[in-house]
Design brief:
alpha+beta, 6-stranded antiparallel sheet, globular, disordered C terminus
Length: about 525
């Protein structure tokens, strides 16, 4: 993974671009590259080397005049090399170069042929094309400066000071100066009425295994984020099986306020079951509060749930990177696909349930994908998300919603996924983890984290400030003192209205208490309370 910056316009100062690109050096601590094209456009790249450690330096030149920068991974790059691009000569052995060659062969009609996560810019003379992956796993922003030059960057901080207007680049789209934005990713499951496939548990299971297998592609050590919840535990279990017998040791990582945090207890059981090299990281509420301003600078959001959950992930990523690991698997996307958040229990109908899963998946770029990318890449760590594989999404999202909705929620959600991996002949997970209650990450690290964070933030904001919040912040006016406090931190780093408009707030649906914590839902079962483990 990397940080990219491209400026397409005349009289661009290379030194300035290089300086702005360095604001993203945390995304690519291994090396930097910069290219001024013959037409005077600039491409800059901050590299985190994962695949092809020696020759994959960017920007990358195509066969002749085209140049490219790319952030992400193309999992089908060898298939493309051996088939569509078998007549092409390559300068590197990495996955990124296939993008510019696909452009040379197909023009602009190639982006949907890429299987992976990406944001890229290709410049060919004065022509250019920019693209972002289907769900927005990788971040990308765009804007224009006072000269009319167009800017594209992995993070907003690289263009906010130079652009008069800027915004988030929409996922699943590409852009050219001739066509404008074009949505290339239009799967049938975008239409809720197309969810008509009966559940095939074996197909669902094998599809997630295939998605995880793709994401083991790396020339560096690999680990797993293991919260002890269903999603990360499944990806960890699958990864452990896939590398079985290879001699490679799988490292798993968990974080909590102390050893008794709900996530740490569950993660310990999974790690013991899988035989991973397990690492537990602890942090204090005081440490979390201390880094909030720096965290908001990295995240580029003021969304309450993103900040709550990103704080432990930020500390965990730092500890993982310090151990020399550059790639981890993570479980983002599952709750959106399968209606895993506890508020889904209140869906008024199967149709509304399906529409909400679609809405949540389509907005992942502003929520969990943003959090997972930016809190890990703050320390040069790449997070890979098997649940957001295109083929797996097709399999899961086209299942009739009646079969995805659980019979009862009594603290247990995502029944269909649990049933798919409930294989007694060779269990993927212990039963108490496979059927564990949903804990949102910011809750699972220890309930005191959110409680004390709310208390601290509330003390930083006065009643008068809340009364006049709409005057100071007319865009996404904060509704709580905690939200106001985060907005203040955000505005110090990004005072522009354009910056404020890039943020989408995560708010639960169909429940009275709109606090994003899972504990705000009435079906949440507190620790120490007895409940039956339900298997259907």
């Amino acid at each position: 993974m990397c940080g990219i910056l491209a400026v397409i316009g005349k009289d661009v100062e290379a030194a300035k671009i290089s300086s702005l690109s360095k604001k993203m050096s945390h995304r690519g601590p291994d090396e930097s590259g910069l290219k001024i094209t013959e037409k005077g456009h600039v491409l800059s790249h901050e590299r985190l080397s994962i695949v092809d450690l020696t020759t994959g330096i960017q920007p990358i030149q195509g066969t002749s005049s085209a140049w490219m920068v790319h952030n992400g991974e193309i999992y089908n790059h060898m298939e493309l090399r051996n088939n569509e691009l078998k007549d092409h000569s390559f300068r590197t052995t990495g996955d990124s170069e296939v993008i510019v060659h696909m452009y040379e062969k197909y023009g602009n009609d190639f982006v949907d042929k890429l299987d992976g996560v990406f944001s890229f810019v290709i410049i060919d003379g004065d022509d250019f094309i920019v693209g972002r992956d289907p769900i927005g796993v990788k971040p990308l922003y765009y804007g224009t400066d006072e000269t009319g030059a167009m800017w594209f960057a992995s993070e907003m901080k690289a263009l906010a000071e130079s652009c008069i207007e800027f915004s988030a680049f929409p996922p699943g789209h590409f852009y050219t100066p001739q066509s404008g934005f074009v949505r290339y990713y239009t799967p049938e499951w975008f239409d809720s009425d197309k969810a008509i496939e009966p559940a095939d548990l074996a197909k669902l299971r094998e599809s997630l295994i295939d998605a995880t297998r793709k994401r083991l592609m790396a020339d560096v050590p690999l680990g797993v984020l293991l919260s002890g919840g269903l999603d990360s535990s499944l990806t960890s279990s699958i990864a452990a099986r896939l590398i079985e017998g290879s001699g490679q040791k799988l490292h798993s990582f968990s974080i909590g306020l102390d050893a008794e945090a709900p996530d740490l207890i569950a993660a310990r059981k999974v790690a013991d079951f899988l035989g991973t090299e397990h690492h537990e990281i602890h942090f204090t509420v005081e440490q979390g509060i201390e880094i909030l301003s720096q965290l908001v600078w990295h995240l580029e959001t003021y969304d309450v749930t993103s900040i709550r959950a990103s704080t432990p992930m930020y500390f965990l990523s730092k500890a993982i990177a310090e151990k020399g690991i550059k790639v981890v698997l993570s479980g983002e996307g599952s709750d959106e696909i399968f209606g895993g958040y506890l508020y889904f229990k209140n869906a008024p109908s199967a149709g509304e349930f399906q529409k909400e899963t679609i809405r949540r998946v389509q907005r992942l770029a502003t929520a969990d994908c943003l959090r997972a990318d930016k809190s890990t890449m703050a320390h040069g760590l790449e997070a890979r998300v098997p649940f957001l594989d295109k083929a797996f999404l097709k399999t899961a999202m086209e299942i009739v919603p009646e079969e995805k909705m659980p019979v009862t929620y009594d603290g247990v959600e995502k029944f269909i996924l649990r049933k798919a991996f409930d294989t007694p002949e060779r269990p993927f997970l212990p039963d108490e983890v496979l059927w564990r209650q949903k804990e949102q990450f910011s809750d699972g690290v220890g309930y005191n984290w959110i409680d004390e964070l709310i208390d601290y933030a509330s003390k930083q904001v006065t009643d008068v400030q809340m009364e006049t919040a709409a005057l100071k912040y007319p865009i996404n006016t904060p509704a709580t003192k905690e939200a106001y406090f985060y907005r203040e931190l955000f505005s110090k780093h990004f005072p522009q209205d354009s910056a404020a408009k890039t943020v989408k707030r995560w708010v639960p649906k169909w429940q009275k208490d709109l606090d994003p914590s899972g504990r705000a839902n009435e079906t949440h079962v507190a620790p120490g309370m007895k409940k039956e483990m339900i298997k259907v």
